[in-house]
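Sanity check

After download, print the first record. It should look like this:
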Amino acid sequence: HPAAPPEHIKEPLAYMRKAQASWEKRILKSLNSMCTELGVPLARKRPVNEQKELLSKWNEMGTDEPDLSHFRPVYAPKDFLEVLISLRNPNYDISDQASSKAHWGLIQVPLNVKDIPELREAFSELDLTSGQLGIDDHTSVPPDMFENEHVRIGKKVLTEQDSAAAEQYSRQGCPTGLRADLWGLILNVTNEPE
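Expected structure tokens:
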């Protein structure tokens, strides 16, 4: 939007940060009022004897279930939905949009989305002209043309132990027999029991 202040141009999601801060204040206010009503302090320094008792029971704390029936929810899901619905980007001019698009969905947060040519480039491995293991298994294409070659390349990638190559290779599918080793290589974990 041409009239947007410089800080909004530099940080296009500043309006979301403002909404987040407002929501956090609302939650904190609700939490504080509930704790005041119940006489429960949110933060206080424990006396020394209580600290020692807490340290001695530290490992058992997960099994002790306090009575939480007096506590009410800090917010209702409907309140959160209303906050999301009210989000509006000050840099986004909806006057040039078709009127029907302006009413699609409750939450109207415009985000930059790649157009079709950019998506085609980003996901070129999913092009119809590229083979996909798991998708092209039951087509009229003989397995020798893609699957056997793909498995051979997969074994070569595993031999070289190159995680970047394994990640690139897996974009066209992981053969079942190599899947565990490939994912282990990609995630840099071993598949061996200790």
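If your output differs, re-run the checksum step. Summary of this record's structure: The helical segments are 6-10, 14-38, 48-56, 77-86, 116-122, 147-160, 163-170, 179-187.
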